[in-house]
Request: fold
Amino acid sequence: MEKLLNELSSKCNSAYKLNCDTETDIEIPENLKRKSDLGLPNISEIDLLRHFTNLSRKNYSLSTCFYPLGSCTMKHNPLINERIAKNRAFNLIHPYQPTETMQGILKIIYNLERDLCEISGMNCFSLQQAAGAHGEFTGLLVIAKYFKSIGQKRIHIIVPDSAHGTNSASAVMAGFNVIPLKSNPDGSISILKLKKILTPDVAGIMLTVPNTLGVFEKNILEISKIVHKNGSLLYYDGANLNAIMGIVKPGDMGFDVMHINLHKTFSAPHGGGGPGSGPVGVKTFLEPFLPVPRIKKKKSKFVLDYEKHNSIGRVKAFFGNFPIILKAYVYIKSLGAKGLKNASEQAVLNANYMLSKFKNKITVPAGDKCMHEFVLSLKSLLKNNIKTVDIAKRLLDYGYYSPTIYFPLIVEEAVMIEPTETESKKTLDLFINIFNNILFEEMSKKPHKIKEAPVNTPLKRLNEIEAARKPVLKW
Reply:
């Protein structure tokens, strides 16, 4: 084999040096030639085409159906994003190139930082982070480094019980202790309870606005004032930014640091463990602690600045997940300020329309109005030994991915629905009718159909606990 490779290499190199496009005859040694055929099946082109087309149809995606996954903002990814991201000018670059040869790339990253500052009310951003949780971790490291720089030992982070699970995990990984804060029934913050746990050694509080029940925190300015008076900082979990972009800015609410999920709010693909991007934005006084390198503009050129002595250091190789950065940039430039605002308004309208079709039949813990998503509790409706997970499995038989279930944890038998702005009224009505039919027709008349679901999928109901603990990672 080594002889063959050497011969191939020499022939190819010769052809390359001669700039010759003609085929080069290469004599393969007899002992390396196959003595029998490969045994490949004989198959017609149409059968092969159908095989791969049917495989693709087994994938569930926004290209095939509605994806009402609450808290995750599964919105349509415009095809123009994909076309531009596949452009050879972008996907043939290499991060070790001299900066002089990638000025266009650095300009896009620099400009996206400026756009995100304008949208969020922050003063500067780092785009290195590979996901939202990675952004949380980075933001908390910045907070820790800030307090260390001013000689204060603050070891606690307050996290509401309605928060995303990654908030607590990120805080612990960043070296903090987590103080849980019990929320009101609608997921909002109790000022009285907050004051009781806000001690001098609290570094900050992590909030999602709107919260995970789809409710805007009406006391956010008072909360900000109380937290800052204590010398603590406010962290904004940007998971629900899709509800407020173009309408209100986290920076104006008093937040000091935040992350943005580019793969949610700004339309890049989301799911399957990636790809992701979670840029971190901060107010000016926290800028020295952001990861390096920072992209700076000097006259007409863009340079990489590593001279940040208070920086927490690098948190990811190179400059970030550039294809996702590029898609977010295209999305923002395509829609503009007016379009981004309209997207949020439409997302809120769609969610409230769906909620209006459920609220008189199903318990709504957070009231009869919402922002971009809402949470239902099926506890009072369930009978015949049927659980919320059974309803979710039955939806698969109708061709729908289930909404988020059993989250947030403060709602029993929770179903969390986020329609996003990209779905039509017709699509929403079809889902509403099927969901109501399962709950109010099948549960009484055909409970076995729900308990046996799914029956129309390639695989039947799996043992999810075993699948999580013992995943099969190869065929």
Q: What stands out?
A: The radius of gyration is 26 Å.
